[in-house]
Amino acid sequence: MSGKLLEMKGVTKQFPGVYALKGVDFELESGEVHALLGENGAGKSTLMKILNGIYDINEGNIFINGNEVQINGVKDARRFGISIIHQEISLVPYLSIAENIYLGREPLTKARFVDIKLMYENAQKFLDDFDLGLSAKTTVNQLTVAQQQMIEIIKAVSFHSKIIVMDEPTSSLTDKEVEFLFKTIRNLKEQGVGIVYISHRMNELFEITDRITVMRDGTYVGTVVTKETTNDKLIAMMVGRELTNYYVRDFSTTGETILKVNNLTRKGVIENASFELRKGEILGFSGLVGAGRSELMKCIFGLDSFEQGEIMVNGTKVNIKNPNDAIKNKIAYVTENRKEEGLFLTQSVKYNLTIKILQDFIKFLRVNFKYENNETNHYINELSIKTPSPEQEVGNLSGGNQQKVLISRWLATKPQVLILDEPTRGVDVGAKAEIYAIMNRLAKEGVSIIMISSELPEVINMSDRVAVMYKGKIQKILNKEDSDQETIMHYATGGN
Ligand SMILES: Nc1ncnc2c1ncn2[C@@H]1O[C@H](COP(=O)(O)OP(=O)(O)OP(=O)(O)O)[C@@H](O)[C@H]1O
Ligand SMILES: [Mg+2]
């Protein structure tokens, strides 16, 4: 570490009805990885959006290399050598990878036309350096969430920034990809780049960061040297109390088969997938990104079609052609991609929460407002959704709280099969524990749950059995006693 790259002092930011930041201090040195830690809604993303000129500052000062600066807009931030990898992916889906990386700053030929050849060459070089096995010509909508996240990272690196903010860069990456990202971070460190690292995965903080600043409810709690602190100390700083009983799960014998999938095949994506899900069971789905877990669930939920195979619900073959058919069979699917497939960001919390049960609300051709309000308040309380009111636009909630709205919506449909795709992605430790407790309670009430998760400890601790996928196939289904980290990784990488 050598010299203060960045200093933010007394930063205050108010939104209508919400104090997002109250006098927050933050500093970053050259070559340092400095984590920002705090519960969902603590103000981490807001602080970093101010640094990146996305929000203006109400009060406070920002210094870069000791000089006070005003950051008015993203262009200013770029000029000061700052770039951000956003929590929510912000690539343009129908443009190519290269076009996304160079959007708005395409290399030009002497005649001032976009130098398409050079642009693709440069982008390809980055992709190859990162060993992604992708062509720069691929359009972004063909990529998985993890791949998109890697493109966001490449984009930030390609600006040759001095300060890079990574707002939950790993939330949809698996271990192997995280390792890769960390290699990149170590490289950047050596070049003197300062990195602000936001993550709810505590183990990552211990592996990659030098210091950690903790925030709570928009205030600054403190800064610690990573080597000198512990997991428990950090959690106590974060939530203001100790957290016991993290994974809550009362295992009991599971009941009869509720969902049965036989030899499901979708060409090039899923091959001969067969499994059973029992009453009150939590069946984990593990595998590397791209193994076909979400794709399989999309077939079951009627979002994608399949050529072969059958789906049985309660012993009867069902024909699921679209999500409505699935919902009629009491199957619910909480998607991993909350922005594109899940939430209506410009609508209220209430609207997003109740949309799937609107039929219930409309009695005698008028909306039953009372029921709608009751349901909304019930879930806001039960999942501790942090929002100033049920009328708040969902797009204004913090990332983790958006996730809770999405889960609540599907819980409100009272499903018998609940498919959760990366349910705790971007969710803080306290809220994670709440989600686990809810899953446990639902399983006890007889709901059958499928949980796709890239976090191995979560799959292992919460699941009755773990299905491991590899290249579109269910490679192995492990019983509780056999599902440890090594065994899962063995099958996830193609072992027999
Ligand atoms: N554009 C906005 N309009 C209104 N309120 C906002 C806006 N952006 C953020 N907020 C509010 O500011 C507070 C801080 O949100 P922020 O997104 O910074 O939290 P966070 O620490 O990044 O949380 P997470 O871990 O869930 O991502 C929250 O209460 C949030 O609802
Ligand atoms: Mg955030």
Automatic annotation (TrEMBL):
The UniProt entry's GO biological process terms, in alphabetical order, are:
monosaccharide transmembrane transport
Claim: Cell membrane is one of the keywords in the record: yes
Q: Which UniProt keywords apply?
A: ATP-binding, Cell membrane, Membrane, Nucleotide-binding, Repeat, Sugar transport, Translocase, Transport
EC top class, as a word: translocase
Looking at the record, the residues that make up the ABC transporter domain are 6-242, 253-496
State the superkingdom.
Answer: Bacteria
Q: Which reaction does it catalyse?
A: D-galactose(out) + ATP + H2O = D-galactose(in) + ADP + phosphate + H(+)
Q: In what way does this protein cross or attach to the membrane?
A: Peripheral membrane protein
EC no.?
Answer: 7.5.2.11
Q: Which GO terms describe its cellular component?
A: plasma membrane
- Cite the SUPFAM superfamilies for this sequence: P-loop containing nucleoside triphosphate hydrolases (SSF52540)
Tell me where in or outside the cell this protein is found: Cell inner membrane; Cell membrane
Instruction: Please tell me where this protein is predominantly located.
Output: membrane
Which PROSITE patterns would you find in this protein's record?
ABC_TRANSPORTER_1 (PS00211), ABC_TRANSPORTER_2 (PS50893)
What InterPro entries does UniProt report for this protein, alphabetically?
AAA+_ATPase, ABC_carbohydrate_import_ATPase, ABC_transporter-like_ATP-bd, ABC_transporter-like_CS, P-loop_NTPase
Write one Gene Ontology MF term.
Answer: ATP hydrolysis activity
Sequence similarity: Belongs to the ABC transporter superfamily.
Functionally, this protein is described as follows: Part of an ABC transporter complex involved in carbohydrate import. Could be involved in ribose, galactose and/or methyl galactoside import. Responsible for energy coupling to the transport system.
Q: What is this protein called?
A: Ribose/galactose/methyl galactoside import ATP-binding protein
